[in-house]
Design goal:
Keywords: Cell membrane, Membrane, Transmembrane, Transmembrane helix. By secondary structure, the protein is an alpha+beta fold. It contains three helices and twelve strands; from the N terminus they run αααββββββββββββ. The protein is 35% helix and 29% strand. β3 and β4 form a beta hairpin.
């Protein structure tokens, strides 16, 4: 009787290229996931959907890997276990992200309209509006009977107010969780950027007052919040 058996070299070569091609595919999918997370080219819901799909693809890739695995090869075993950890890690990370979304509970941008009042106490840096112009207090003081940039107090003429070129705005936010807050203007003609990294990442809230070139509202700004490499933003 005569017979033949498969060439062991060819079989091993085929097995090697199976592992190699699958490794490259898993690496490419992981690279795509990193780009999607950090570049933020899509909305949050789309990102979660894409990541869920890629995690499923990686899981089936690892299963295919297992079907072609020869356990007498230590390197193959190590690569398989690494692929399994990456696939399962991505899957559970996506589930966590879906169950712990970033919720921007409040975001407001309002122009300050506090009119100057005689007899009022003002702190350093306070903004007031007087005769369609805005001023900032240069020192803490109690306002006199009439508004004067150089009011007289006890025979002296200290400069209490400084005229502001622009409109002061109060920008406030409240987010359920975040380790980074970014706020920027949507309009080039009214530039603004603010970045904030809170120490406490739960129930993050804050307020800043900035002078803008033009009057603005919340719709003129974008707030982005990051929590563990996952982003959420205002519409």
């Amino acid at each position: 009787m005569s017979g033949h058996s498969e060439d062991p070299v060819a079989e091993e070569s085929k097995r090697f290229f199976t592992f190699f091609n699958l490794s490259m595919a898993l690496a490419a999918i992981t690279g795509l996931e990193i780009v999607i997370i950090y570049v933020q080219a899509f909305e949050s819901k789309v990102i979660i959907g894409v990541l869920f799909t890629t995690s499923v693809l990686k899981f089936f890739g690892v299963v295919w890997w297992f079907m072609h695995l020869r356990w007498d090869k230590i390197l193959n075993t190590v690569l398989f276990l690494m692929g399994l950890v990456i696939a399962l890690g991505t899957y559970f990370a996506v589930i966590y992200m879906a169950d712990h979304p970033i919720d921007i509970e409040n975001f407001e941008v309002t122009a300050l309209e506090d009119a100057w009042k005689a007899g009022s106490d003002y702190e350093v840096g306070a903004y007031v509006k007087h005769e369609e112009s805005y001023y900032q207090a240069k020192s803490a003081h109690t306002a006199g009977e009439s508004f004067d940039v150089n009011s007289t107090t006890e025979g002296e003429k200290p400069s209490f107010w400084m005229k502001v070129e622009g409109i002061p705005h109060k920008i406030s936010w409240k987010v359920n969780q975040a380790d980074l807050i970014e706020i920027n203007s949507r309009k080039p003609g009214n530039p603004f950027f603010h970045m904030y990294q809170p120490e406490d990442t739960e129930k993050v809230q804050g307020t800043v007052i900035r002078v803008l070139a033009k009057a603005a509202t919340s719709s003129d700004f974008r707030l982005k919040a990051r929590s563990e490499a996952f982003w959420g933003e205002t519409e």
